Amino acid sequence: MTEAATLMDRMYRHQRHIYDASRKFYLLGRDGMIAGLAPPDQGTILEIGCGTGRNLIKAARMFPHTRCYGLDVSEEMLVSARQSIRRAGFSSRIEVAQADATAFDPLHLFGVARFDRVFISYALSMIPPWRDVLASACSVLTENGSLHVVDFGDQAGLPSWFGAALRQWLSWFSVTPRLTLEDDMRALARTRGLGCQFSRPLRSYAFQAVLQQNTAFNRSPNSL
């Protein structure tokens, strides 16, 4: 087991039982991002950092003609994910596996090499080598695939006391907002010949972005 996996298992061994109930109040924009995936019929969806499986179940319900996959470094979180997926009746359409988000082989994990949609929801802020995660995500997109990201923003449009208090509180959970996310995603897009859309909803409470293989975007990221 890697050091990251050990750390996350230790953190979520007990938290996983209340994770979904507590996070719904401040992980804003997840459902809007999922709705904006708009995968093709019979398409494939991958979530990097799938945690308890909450988002995958939401995607499976929203897009009934797709297959969904998820990976997470924490086996403790995946215990909850598999239980939730089974209770929701999606065991035949959702598959999850333990893996490092910075370097994974989806063909080995799932028997699928590339995905029509890849999404990352509030996970980059918990992974120190987060730029490697973005690069890995781009490498498993289909020809017309897209990468969707939502995470904490810089709170630039909110009162300064709010941003300071939020960042202090997040630091207790080893969460660090990626303040250069827009610049890094646009640089990655240029390097890989992708199109990039970036938005800062709720006065920059969150950052939301889409990178797409087909540079002719026909939609914008869903607003929160």
Automatic annotation (TrEMBL):
List residues of the Methyltransferase domain: 45-145
- Alphabetical list of InterPro entries matching this protein: Methyltransf_25, SAM-dependent_MTases_sf
Keywords in alphabetical order, please.
Methyltransferase, Transferase
Q: Say yes or no: keyword Methyltransferase present.
A: yes
Name the Gene Ontology biological process terms. methylation
Can the keyword Iron-sulfur be found in this entry's annotation? no
The GO terms describing molecular function are: methyltransferase activity
Q: Which SUPFAM superfamilies match?
A: S-adenosyl-L-methionine-dependent methyltransferases (SSF53335)
- Name the domain of life this protein comes from: Bacteria
PANTHER family the record matches:
BTA1P, METHYLTRANSFERASE DOMAIN-CONTAINING PROTEIN
Q: Could you tell me what this protein is called?
A: Methyltransferase type 12
Species this chain originates from: Beijerinckia indica subsp. indica (strain ATCC 9039 / DSM 1715 / NCIMB 8712)
Taxonomic lineage is: Bacteria, Pseudomonadati, Pseudomonadota, Alphaproteobacteria, Hyphomicrobiales
